[in-house]
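Type II secretion protein F
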Amino acid sequence: MGNLRWICGLAAIALIMGWVALRARSGKRYAALRSMPVDGLRLRSLSEPLLMLLEKGGATRKFPVFAFRLQRSVQRIYGQRHSAEITLLYMGEMLAYSWLLLLGGCGLAALSGEPSALILGIMLAILLPAALAADLHKKVKVREQLIMMELPDLLSGIVLLVSAGETVQRAITRCLESRKNDSHPLYRELLTMTGEWESGYSLQQAFENFSKRCAVQEVSLFTTTVLLNVRRGGGDFALALRDLSRQLWEKRKAVSRTRGEQASSKLVFPMVVIFVIVIVLVGTPAFMMMNM
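Structure:
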């Protein structure tokens, strides 16, 4: 028991001293990343020195599959411009949580002498970073579903305006006028696209960049349909958009059914727990009376 407390105490001191040494060595190397807008990162000040450890240790080379999946999710949410830096921030956040939980586990084990505190700290240090990565991947899926659910509505408005004689650029701009301050990911990407063609990008370049940023199959289909038929104009273009709109509405119905099934399946576990609690509450007095 005494040896465990001694070892855990030394480990806690080593973790603190290691962080202090990294803090002094990194200096202002990562100061530019402090103002980078990234949601969900709560330990930036703690993780900043650990970024040097990740870079010097070659974390992306040692874990290429994990780093690739993480950066791909970051690109879908935040775009490609600063994806490498944001990926590094996410990895630093994960390492900071692991460091903090290991420090807490070693500290509790040193104070109490209980090995369970150290084991719990190690387990949480492994599981919590994995949970953060899973949460990021879940955000990507939610973003894709939001785009998929909103795209048929947008396309219906574009079809009406194009049928009335508007160009596709003007139709998209008019659809955005009422949703300019909307935080929906589809309208944010559309606003970026309109800014691109207003600043000199061709229509094809702007639509291709829009499709890459969204990274959703239905958006790629919409982009391909527009680029193939925009030169035809008139009734052919409107007819192609109308056919695509019907397809997207069918896919939206399928996504809605899937989400409804997922919501109903999530209720199964709480219902089972409530059923067990009711059985215990009802059965315990009867069992006690039988024993008496």
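Residues 115-163 form the longest helix (49 residues).
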